[in-house]
Amino acid sequence: MSNNSGYKTKQKDMILDFLVENKNSHVTVSRISDYLDKVGTHVGVTTIYRHLDKLHEQGIVRKFTVDGTTSACYQYASSDKKCFEHFHLKCEKCGKLIHLNCRHVTEMYNHILEEHGFSVNLYRTVLYGVCKECKEKTLEEIL
């Protein structure tokens, strides 16, 4: 029984290592599964979700649920609070999640707070649209 427990710890460690290596991006369970398969460690999707839920409960991993139709994204919760200081942009074509660090958005955040008394939860704020790369692909297809 201890071998099985050790195996689960190894899986959890591999998932955490992947998240740490990709700490500047948000990753899906599908991407984690693809990585684990690539390195020769098949882990079921349900098991990956279970490990991620435990890591999230422990505060080691952040979980982003953008809407009710797309998969959640996960990110290693490093000691810095960068993800609490900006809005996010979500591409509706490719699914990319972009951190928006822009003084204009910060000014909008401050305006909403000061003029309207409303504190926006930056951790959960996502603006939807189409990223630059997908726009360029669409233009290339037209031409």
Q: Could you characterize what this model shows?
A:
This protein has two domains: 1-79, Winged helix-like DNA-binding domain superfamily/Winged helix DNA-binding domain (Arc Repressor Mutant, subunit A), CATH 1.10.10.10; 80-143, Dna Ligase, domain 1 (2-Layer Sandwich). It is flat. It has helices spanning 2-21, 29-38, 45-57, 103-116, 132-142, and strands spanning 61-64, 73-76, 87-91, 97-100, 126-129. With 143 residues, it is α+β, with helices and mostly antiparallel strands. Strand 1 and strand 2 form a beta hairpin. The longest helix has 20 residues, at 2-21. Strands 4-3-5 form a three-stranded mixed β-sheet, with no helix packed on it. A two-stranded antiparallel ribbon has the order 1-2. Helix 1 (2-21) crosses helix 3 (45-57).
Q: How is the quaternary structure best described?
A: single chain
Write down the CATH class of the largest domain: Mainly Alpha
Q: Give me the side-by-side strand order of the main sheet.
A: 4-3-5
Morphology: flat
Order of helices and strands: HHHEEEEHEH
- The whole-angstrom Rg is 18 Å
pLDDT < 50 runs, ≥5 residues: 1-6
Look at the structure and name the CATH superfamily of the largest domain. Answer: Winged helix-like DNA-binding domain superfamily/Winged helix DNA-binding domain
Reported by name, the CATH topology of the largest domain is Arc Repressor Mutant, subunit A
Q: Sheet with the most strands?
A: 3 strands, mixed
**What CATH architecture label of the largest domain applies?**
Orthogonal Bundle
* Classification by helices and strands: alpha+beta
